[in-house]
C-alpha cells in the first residue's frame, strides 16, 4: 500500500460569483482563515499567503478492478486445487476461501482448477467480489469447504475540503494547497487498511465556486469533486469520503477580526449573525448539491463530514475578550449545526467541539495555533491527531474493523 500523498488535480469548472458576507473575497482566496485576519485587522503580521494549487494530475491505481478480481479467482483456484491434492481438503478449503477474500478485486473474478500429483484432485474457485470457495480431495481422503468474506480489504478513501482538511498548521507544508503530513487525511491513510486514493482538500477552499479560479486561487469543493470523478478516483469502489468545508464561505477570519478587542466590540454579534445568515441562504444549497454529487459518484461510500472546533478556550482574555470568545464559539456551534443538517441519515457528521474542549487558544494545552503565530487559527499537530483523527475514527465503524476479521468456516477429515 502506497502511503505517499496523491497530488490534486486542478481542472476547474467555470466559476460563479456569489456574494459572501464581506467584500474581502480576494483575500479569502489567498489561502485560509488566518491570512484574512492579517489584512482585515493586522493581527497576524508576517503570515504568508499560499501559492496556486499543485498542477500534477491524479493517477489511477496500477491494478484495475477487473485485474484484481481475475487474479483473485485464478490464484485462489490454482492454489486451492494444488494444495488440496497435496495436503488434504481442510487446509485447502480454508486457504482458498480466505485468500480469495483477501484480494481487493472488483469485477467478476475468475475460476481455476488444479490437479495434484498422484491420485489427488483439487477444485478451487475465487471471486473478486470478496468471496472464495475451495474444495479438494487428496491422498489423505480429506474433504474441506471454506468461505472467506472480504472484510479486511483496503478502505478506498477520498479527502475533500478546506485548510482544516488539508492539515494546514499541522507541520511543514508539502504543497501549494497547504497539505501536511499531520492533516487528518494523511493520518487516516496511515491506518493499516486505509488507502488515500485522492487528496483534493485545499487551504482556502469554499463550498461555493468563487473567484479567482485556479491557479490564482485554490480549488473549491465543486471542482475538487469534479477532479476526483474525472480521474476515476471517486467512484463505485470508493468506501470513504471525508469533507470539512464552509469556514471560508462565512469568512471565519473576518468574524474573528470583528470580535477582537479587550472588550466586546459592537461589530462582533452582527458579524456572526451575517455569517450565519449567509451559511443558511447561500452555503446550504451548494452543500446539498455537492453531497448529492458525491453520493452519485460513489454510492457505496460513507460520507463523513467533520465540523469545526472551538477556537477559543473562553476562560482567559486575549486578543478577544472572554465574552467575545464565547460568542464566537457559539457561532461555531451554529455553523456546525447548519452543515450537519445537510449530511443526511446515510452520512456521518463528526462534531469535534467536545474533543477540542479545554484545548482552545488560551488554554493550558492549546490545540489551536494562536493569533500572531504562523498558520494562526488552525489546529496544530496535536489538534489533528488527538482531535480530528480520534473523533473520526471513533465515529466511523468502517475504520474500526480489525484486519483479519474474516468470516471463515472450514471442516475436514484426515
TrEMBL record:
SUPFAM superfamilies: SGNH hydrolase (SSF52266). It holds the Pfam family Lipase_GDSL_2. GO terms for biological process: triglyceride catabolic process. One of its GO terms (molecular function) is triacylglycerol lipase activity. Residues 76-101, 110-153 have a biased composition (Basic and acidic residues). Keywords: Disulfide bond, Hydrolase. The active site is at 163 (nucleophile), 378. Disulfide bonds join 177-202, 259-268. The keyword Chaperone does not apply. Residues 159-385 form the SGNH hydrolase-type esterase domain. Transmembrane segments: none annotated. It comes from the Bacteria. InterPro entries: SEST-like (IPR037460), SGNH_hydro (IPR013830), SGNH_hydro_sf (IPR036514). Residues 1-28, 60-153 are annotated as: Disordered. This is SGNH/GDSL hydrolase family protein. It comes from Arthrobacter jiangjiafuii.
Amino acid at each position: 500500500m502506497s502511503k505517499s500523498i496523491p497530488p490534486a488535480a486542478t481542472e476547474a469548472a467555470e466559476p460563479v460569483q456569489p456574494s459572501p458576507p464581506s467584500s474581502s473575497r480576494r483575500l479569502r482566496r489567498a489561502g485560509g482563515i488566518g491570512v484574512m485576519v492579517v489584512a482585515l485587522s493586522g493581527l497576524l503580521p508576517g503570515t504568508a499567503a499560499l501559492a496556486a494549487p499543485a498542477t500534477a494530475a491524479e493517477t489511477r491505481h496500477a491494478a484495475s478492478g477487473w485485474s484484481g478480481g481475475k487474479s483473485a479467482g485464478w490464484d485462489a483456484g490454482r492454489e486451492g486445487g494444488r494444495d488440496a491434492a497435496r495436503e488434504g481438503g481442510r487446509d485447502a478449503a480454508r486457504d482458498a476461501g480466505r485468500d480469495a477474500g483477501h484480494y481487493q478485486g472488483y469485477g467478476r473474478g475468475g475460476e481455476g482448477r488444479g490437479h495434484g500429483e498422484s491420485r489427488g484432485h483439487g477444485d478451487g474457485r475465487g471471486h473478486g467480489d470478496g468471496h472464495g470457495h475451495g474444495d479438494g480431495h487428496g491422498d489423505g481422503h480429506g474433504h474441506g469447504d471454506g468461505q472467506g468474506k472480504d472484510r479486511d480489504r483496503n478502505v478506498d478513501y477520498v479527502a475533500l475540503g478546506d485548510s482544516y482538511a488539508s492539515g494546514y498548521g499541522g507541520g511543514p507544508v508539502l504543497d501549494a494547497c497547504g497539505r501536511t503530513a499531520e492533516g487528518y487525511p494523511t493520518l487516516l491513510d496511515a491506518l493499516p487498511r486505509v488507502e488515500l486514493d485522492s487528496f483534493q482538500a485545499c487551504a482556502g477552499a469554499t463550498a461555493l465556486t468563487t473567484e479567482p479560479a485556479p491557479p490564482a486561487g485554490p480549488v473549491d469543493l465543486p471542482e475538487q469533486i469534479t477532479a476526483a470523478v474525472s480521474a476515476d478516483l471517486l467512484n463505485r469502489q470508493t468506501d470513504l469520503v471525508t469533507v470539512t468545508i464552509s469556514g471560508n464561505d462565512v469568512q471565519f477570519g473576518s468574524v474573528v477580526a470583528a470580535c477582537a478587542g479587550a472588550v466586546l466590540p459592537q461589530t462582533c454579534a452582527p458579524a456572526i449573525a451575517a455569517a450565519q445568515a449567509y451559511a443558511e441562504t447561500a452555503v446550504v444549497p451548494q452543500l446539498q448539491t455537492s453531497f448529492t454529487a458525491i453520493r452519485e459518484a460513489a454510492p457505496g461510500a460513507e460520507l463523513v463530514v467533520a465540523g469545526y472546533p472551538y477556537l477559543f478556550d473562553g476562560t482567559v482574555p486575549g486578543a478577544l475578550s472572554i465574552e467575545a470568545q464565547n460568542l464566537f464559539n457559539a457561532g461555531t456551534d451554529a455553523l456546525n449545526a447548519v452543515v450537519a443538517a445537510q449530511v443526511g441519515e446515510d452520512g456521518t457528521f463528526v462534531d469535534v467541539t467536545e474533543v477540542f474542549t479545554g484545548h482552545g487558544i488560551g488554554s493550558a494545552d492549546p490545540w489551536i495555533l494562536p493569533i500572531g503565530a504562523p498558520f494562526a487559527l488552525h489546529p496544530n499537530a496535536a489538534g489533528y491527531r488527538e482531535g480530528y483523527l480520534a473523533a473520526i475514527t471513533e465515529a466511523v465503524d468502517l475504520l474500526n474493523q480489525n484486519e483479519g476479521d474474516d468470516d471463515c468456516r472450514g471442516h475436514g477429515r484426515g
